[in-house]
Amino acid sequence: MLYLSRQYLGVYIKAPYWSPTEENKNNAWSQNFSNGNQSKANKSNKCAVRAVQSF
Q1: Contacts for 3-11 with beta carbons within 8 Å, 24 or more apart?
Q2: Nearest residue to 16 via CA among 52, 46, 53
Q3: Is-above-0.85 flag for pTM?
């Protein structure tokens, strides 16, 4: 949803952001803002985060 609403975000980086969805104890999902791809990433990787509010 955050990627789909990116035109309302103002400034954001075109790089992977962490998703709150975990795959397992070592991996979580990330959303790439450069190309729209979603992928699993090791939790030791550096990805951006963005605080959001439910609406």
Answers
A1: 3/31, 3/33, 3/36, 6/33, 9/50
A2: 46
A3: no
Strands, sheet with 27-32, edge to edge from the N-terminal-most edge strand: 16-22, 27-32, 38-42
Q: How far apart are CA 48 and CA 55, in angstroms?
A: 22
* Residues contacting 23, CB < 8 A, separation 6+: 29, 40
- Grade residue 50 by pLDDT with cuts at 50, 70 and 90: confident
Q: Is 27 helix (H, G, I), strand (E, B) or coil?
A: strand
Q: Which amino acid is at 45?
A: N
SS3 assignment, position 25: coil
Domain positions in the chain: 1-55
